[in-house]
């Protein structure tokens, strides 16, 4: 049975590039994935999508027809696609014995997918059909600031509790900045506290308190450092995915 990987991440986190790299990695292992593009506003995808929302819903026509802005157009496009998602599920079910992994690339406007009704419908439909793992991609180079790091962790935590599915945190762009500092912050409160004090922000007390609150979240979090550009860390990523799959099955 195939494992579904729903890739989420803020705009600019390298999520689509990550999906492209995972696709290339799996092809090199002779286990090509089944890929679903859920971003209706993207001009081009750098990988061959087996199912593409753009074939079903025309984003610009939706904006024009309903008088919507860019984000409203994406939400409405996803809502329209969600009404037919049972057909996509049938395609995936037919193919799930031919593929080991099914990759889902989502819109860069992360809240459009994570907090919309259509996002919940798609996620819940997949989770009831086959092993499903949430892959949260974050930009490590942006998280060298402890406050930005904490914002990302809070978002990741909220997605975990909303989806209630196995969760893998991917620290992307380690070819620019190593993710060692982030791992240290997650395992050593004193180290994080020192970084917060050095920044000297008015948010320091709140950020420190949040780090204590998230301690339990960190302890059970599968975290891997990856470079979507070089492919570094993908072996560790799939080890984490296999572990998350076992978590789903048990």
From TrEMBL:
GO molecular function terms attached to this record: GTP binding; GTPase activity
The protein's Enzyme Commission number: 3.6.5.-
InterPro entries per the UniProt record, alphabetical: Gpn, Gpn1/Npa3/XAB1, P-loop_NTPase
Keyword check for Disulfide bond: no
SUPFAM superfamilies: P-loop containing nucleoside triphosphate hydrolases
GO-annotated cellular components: cytoplasm; nucleus
Main location: cytoplasm
Alphabetical list of PANTHER family matching this protein: GPN-LOOP GTPASE 1 (PTHR21231:SF8), XPA-BINDING PROTEIN 1-RELATED (PTHR21231)
Family statement drawn from the similarity comment of this UniProt entry: Belongs to the GPN-loop GTPase family.
Subunit structure: Binds to RNA polymerase II.
Protein name in UniProt: GPN-loop GTPase
Species classification: Eukaryota, Metazoa, Placozoa, Uniplacotomia, Trichoplacea
């Amino acid at each position: 049975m195939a494992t579904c990987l729903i890739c989420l991440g803020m705009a600019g986190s390298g999520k689509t590039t990550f999906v492209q790299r995972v696709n290339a990695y799996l092809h090199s292992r002779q286990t090509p994935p089944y890929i679903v593009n859920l971003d209706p506003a993207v001009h081009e995808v750098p990988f061959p999508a087996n199912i593409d929302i753009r074939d079903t819903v025309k984003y610009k026509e939706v904006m024009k027809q309903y008088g919507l802005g860019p984000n409203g157009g994406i939400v409405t496009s996803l809502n329209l696609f969600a009404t037919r998602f049972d057909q996509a599920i049938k395609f995936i079910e037919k193919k799930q014995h031919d593929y080991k992994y099914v990759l889902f690339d989502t819109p860069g406007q992360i809240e459009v997918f994570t907090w919309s009704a259509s996002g919940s419908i798609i996620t819940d439909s997949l989770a009831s059909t086959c092993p499903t793992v949430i892959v949260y991609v974050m930009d490590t180079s942006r998280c060298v600031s402890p406050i930005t790091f904490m914002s990302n962790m809070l978002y990741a935590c909220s997605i975990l509790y909303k989806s209630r599915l196995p969760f893998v945190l991917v620290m992307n762009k380690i070819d620019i900045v190593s993710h060692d500092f982030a791992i240290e912050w997650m395992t050593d409160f004193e180290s994080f506290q020192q970084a917060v004090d050095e920044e000297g922000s008015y948010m320091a007390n709140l950020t420190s308190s949040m780090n204590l609150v998230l301690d339990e979240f960190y302890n059970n979090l599968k975290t891997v450092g990856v470079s979507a550009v070089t492919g570094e860390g993908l072996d560790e990523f799939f080890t984490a995915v296999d572990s998350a799959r076992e978590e789903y099955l048990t």
